[in-house]
Amino acid sequence: MAQLFFFYFAGIIVLTSILVVALRNPVYSALSLLIMFFHVAGLYVTLHAEFVAAVQIIVYAGAILVLYLFVVMLLNLKHEDRYHAQFPVGALLGVTILTEVVLLLLQQHGDPGTPVAPPDTVPPAAAIGNTEAIGEALYSTYVFPFEVASLILLVAMIGAIVLAKRDLFDVNRKA
Amino acid sequence: MAELALRMAFSLTQIVVVMGVIMLTIMVLTLAERKVLGWMQDRMGPMEVGPYGILQPVADGLKLFFKEDIVPAGANKFLFTLAPILALVPALIGFAVVPFGPDSTIELFGVQFKPFIISDINIGILYILAFTSIGAYGIILGGWASNSKYSLLGGLRAAAQVISYELNVGLAIVGVLLLSGSLSLVKITQAQAGGFWHWFIVGVPPDGWFPVHTQIFAFVVYVISAVAETNRVPFDLPEAESELVAGFFTEYSGMRFAFFFIAEYGNMILVSCIAAALFLGGWNAPYPGTALARMGFAQFAWIENVVWFAAKVYFFLFLFFWLRATLPRLRYDQLMRFGWKVMLPIALGNILVTAIAAYLFPRS
After folding, report:
1. What value does the mean pLDDT of chain B take?
2. A70 CB contacts (<8 Å, ≥6 apart)?
3. A50/B155 touch (CB, cutoff 8 Å), yes or no
4. In this complex, do A66 and B122 lie within 8 Å of one another by their Cβ atoms?
């Protein structure tokens, strides 16, 4: 049952990801991306990560993609050939990643090895809940990466303010 | 297997009942809004259809159902059809986690059920936030697909407005989450039991006497942002009739228009339910326990709880009408400035103060 769900979600994710770059109408691309975000969230739910699933939808589908759509509509792009100029770069990246995936698969095939985590150990989600578990991990084990991430966001925020308020720092322009 | 089938049948019954009640409430609201507005403006409101005009919603529904379905020339037919559905589904799906009454269980055929709670998932409030943020797509796409300048402008305004004010909704409820220690609407409501002074709007801790945990600022921010998020007056710029004809649904007619209409009213009911559950104690009466239980009818106490929940929800719905009759529409720059420069700092400050208060005076 879980496998069935996984392959459904994975299949739709792959399909819609291809559609995002293949479709000519940017609005349809954005909609494919929306469907993809939902299926990624579904994948998280099958992993008992409901919190991450909800945050995935709120942040990506609810905020970021709306902004994309906003820009696409403001510019009123109908059809355009975005990918033709970038084709060599895209092909290079694609070939590199494909080689890595194939190498990884071959390596795993040769050496059954040790899985990263035992697959049948369900994290103690029932005991303290998914949200609490993430909070505990973020503020104890991963507190340093967490703070670094917040610092980067702070820098971005200050940068946006400086860009928007450029005339404030320019004393000479005040006549 | 039999238990699973029984549970599914029970859940389906709950969903059908809740959807029926929501649709009925929306019908009542369309009439109530026009009546309340009429009285506030010294008019009678609708009086023609049925005694005292009470059959007006039925007449409106029939009219919309039999209207010609027009797709404007040059419109994107697929998205034009999809948009009303994308607006309506998120508005209704959020009711799945709203606790309409106490979380008491009843036993049917040997299986325990909770009659007033369809689903108590541990991320309840995030689930609602996630789906209300999807509702914006219906509005944006409807505006874009109509191939009309007015619709597009309305859709763009809606997009900017929803993003700005959703942030404030999310931040306003953080204080409540800090105090209750849970995202589940059922647990949040349970944390406010025992009289109105324990509701989060007043915020007296369970073992204290002073309202150190008050969420009154968060409550005000939430209510204002909720009005903005449902595109109601004074924040109804996406459908400002004096500038944009009717905004994003200018080109819609018949049942497609009705879908947008139902979605707006469904969202109103949903945000009212959330406000009632988060800040006004949900199904809890404003006095400890229930009066019926004290009189010895403990098995009927749920009636009192459900009535209190409904009363709180209807208070908020009345507030929506009241605002509409009282306030003029904001200008667009005022709307954005108010959202980002007034609401957001208040919400952030509330989180800071609540976190300190919750640390100094822990609830358990």
Report:
1. 83
2. B140, B156, B159, B160
3. no
4. no
CA of B87, closest CA in chain A: separation in Å?
Answer: 13
**C-beta neighbour count of A123 within 10 angstroms:** 13
In a domain? residue B43: no
Fold of A1-82: Four Helix Bundle (Hemerythrin (Met), subunit A) (1.20.120)
Question: The complex's ipTM?
Answer: 0.77
Contact state of B126 with A51 under an 8 Å Cβ cutoff = yes
Total of domains in chain B: 1
Q: Please choose, from the candidates B341, B318, B149, the residue with its C-alpha nearest in 3D space to the C-alpha of residue B232.
A: B318
pLDDT band per the 50, 70, 90 thresholds, residue A77? low
Strand partners of residue B106? B113
Residue B13 lies in a domain: no
Q: For B66-125, how does the pLDDT look when each residue is reduced to its tens digit (9 = 90+)? A: 888 887 787 778 888 888 888 889 888 888 888 887 877 777 777 777 778 888 788 888
The reply to whether B226 falls in a domain is yes
Q: Which of A69, A70, A131 sits opposite B122 (nearest CB)?
A: A131
pTM above 0.90, yes or no: no
DSSP A79-142: S---SSTTHHHHHHHHHHHHHHHHHHHHHHHH-----SS-TT---SHHHH-HHHHHHHHHHTTT
Name the pLDDT band for A131 (thresholds 50, 70, 90).
Answer: confident
* A110 to chain B, closest Cα gap in Å: 42
pLDDT in tens, A111-122: 555 555 544 544
B156 min Cα distance to partner chain A (Å): 6
Tell whether A139 lies on the interface with B, counting CB pairs under 8 A.
no
Give the nearest partner residue to A54 out of B76, B126, B166, using CB atoms: B126
